[in-house]
Prior knowledge:
Layout: H1 2-5, H2 14-28, H3 31-39, H4 55-77, E1 83-85, H5 89-100, H6 105-124, H7 127-134, H8 137-159, E2 162-165, E3 169-172, H9 178-195, H10 201-215, H11 252-279, H12 291-308, E4 313-315, H13 319-324, H14 330-343, H15 355-369, H16 381-397, H17 400-417, H18 426-442
Antiparallel strand pairs: 1-4, 2-3
Helix pairs in contact: 2-14, 3-4, 4-12, 4-14, 6-11, 6-12, 8-11, 8-15, 8-16, 8-17, 9-10, 9-15, 10-15, 11-17, 16-17, 17-18
Amino acid sequence: MKKYFDFKGHDTNYRREIIGGLTTFLSMAYILAVNPSMLSLQGIDGVPDEMKMDMNAVFVATALAAFVGTLIMGVFARYPIALAPGMGLNAFFAFSVVLTMGIPWQTALTGVLFSGIIFVVLTVTGLREYIINSIPMEMKMAVSAGIGFFITFVGLQGAGIIAADEATLVSLGPVHDSGVLLAAFGLLVTVILMAKKTPGAIFIGMIVTALAGVVLNLVPMPEGVVSAVPSLKPTFGAAFEAFSEPSQLFNTQFLIVVLTFLFVDFFDTAGTLVGVASQANFIKDNKLPRANRALLSDAVATISGSILGTSTTTSYVESTAGVAAGARTGFASIVTALLFLSAIFFSPLLVTFTSEVTAPALIIVGALMASNLTKIPFNQFEIAVPAFLTVFIMPLSYSIATGIAVGFIFYPVTMIMAGRRKEIHPMMYWLFVIFILYFVFVSE
């Protein structure tokens, strides 16, 4: 096992990998509750039952999709990157495709399946890896830093430290709220542990915060330890039902759905891979080793997830929390995958790790990733502008893909105007056109 994952070459051991894998799991375990709630359109009045997915079945599908995708990533690609149904993609699935367009959720799953199949083709031909390797290092660092700002914003928002405001869009939240104080306590503990260079500081910080929350009655006490596994029957294989009615598949609306799933997952995954890889110092000569394997793992996970009954499965930026805790190889992903599998049996325990508990991990990791800004030559205006927009737009638009799109549209423009046309990779022109078309025809 040590030889296969090259523990020596990555200067790691079982303890660090296990802590890293566990930290990643705890940082993204919220998806086990959020995804079923979102896809079942819970809490929305007046929605017909046929438009709602079975919440319990989606819970199992979410856990199994995360297990399958993360396991493949760990064993095949050997990266400490976890996968699960993606946030943003599940919102598009539920609210745009099903609720607004009126497309049956079974057909929406077929759209996810199609996008996964297209991903496999693009990956096998090497086009996805070629595109990622064509991105200049400065923009890769901008993507990484942007993801850092993005997940910090997610953490601050989840903790209630940053709240919505009608006048200014966002503002400081209720600082005297118990949840905010718990998150602030966790952040303080984690910062102290990080400053003292304590191994597994982020993981320990979450554990201490969770225990404090339980003791002070700020975090739900688990009602039990083990629960029965819900049936997967309501969603399993539903993605194939649309094939019996070809009219649902061969129309412009369905094409837009597939293209949107394809676009967002493509660049969310690319951004996440670059972010995690740069955090762990995996990128060599502006290339990510075994990138094709990582991308293929992501594509297969999407296909598996659609068959199980959930929206697009993608790589998670929360994997950077595990990397910060010590994860360096695919063994950490195996640990995370097994924890997702076990979650279907021990789901009551997950209620302890609320957004207030996991927020400090996201904030700290965001700060660590922001250090990539130092690798961007901001004294060169033609690079500074697209890099800055990439970083700035991600948290403001609440979308990694949108941040990448805006920055990559400006990059060839500023470089050409600065007389540096020869330094632009030909693929960047194609990406420029693709992103323009996306904003014109697909983006809402």
